[in-house]
Amino acid sequence: MDANQGEAKPEAETAFAAVEHRTGAPTPICAQSGGSRNSKALQASDIARMVAARPAALVNIVSHAPSIAVVRLDSIRDADLPLPHYATSGAAGADVCAALTEPVQVLPMGRVRVPTGLILQIPEGFEVQVRPRSGLAWRSGLTVLNAPGTIDSDYRGELQVLLVNLGPTTATIARGDRIAQLVVARVQRAQFALSDHLSATVRADGGFGSTGT
């Protein structure tokens, strides 16, 4: 071990401790690309030092991923369809497929609810966001109408995706098509309290383009 490696470990320990303090779990906060960076966010170099100093911590990072139970409404009919899955190792959204029995055509500006045949049991404290797939939107104009849709942790109905065709021509959705992506996110519930006054800000009530174009 050279001198540089010997100095890296204390920094990595400090970085891990900072993450554990802020999140309650040893999960790294990756550096954001572009824009200004918060001094509290971990940079790429921080993560590199963390991996070098404590490779075993990667196991803990993976183990903190939430587990979502999935039930098929018709396990025989839909056995050919995959469960929500990540297309790449770095994908944030898991692709979900259409459980249609026959193709559906969506006219321009038309909308349709597409079944997935799945019911999700989402852990309390999490939500699943239903987001559009960029490739589908680009090729056919199909996108999620209420994007991002939210699936609450206490919902036990079928996951259906509300799609709208914003393109100029009729779009066709077939069985097995990847129609949306699911992003799992933590949620924070708030307490709303009635008040007689609010703190003043420079912006005040400016909105709807008040900051310019």
Characteristic key phrases:
single chain, 213 residues, alpha+beta, Deoxyuridine 5'-Triphosphate Nucleotidohydrolase, Chain A, 2 domains, 4-stranded antiparallel sheet, 3-stranded antiparallel sheet, 23% strand, globular, disordered N terminus
Can you summarize this structure?
The chain is α+β, with helices and mostly antiparallel strands and 213 residues long. The chain has helices at residues 3-23, 44-53, 57-63, 134-140, and strands at residues 69-72, 94-97, 104-106, 111-115, 118-121, 126-131, 142-144, 149-151, 160-165, 171-173, 178-186. It has 2 domains: 3-63, no CATH class; 69-186, Deoxyuridine triphosphatase (dUTPase) (Deoxyuridine 5'-Triphosphate Nucleotidohydrolase, Chain A, Distorted Sandwich), CATH 2.70.40.10.
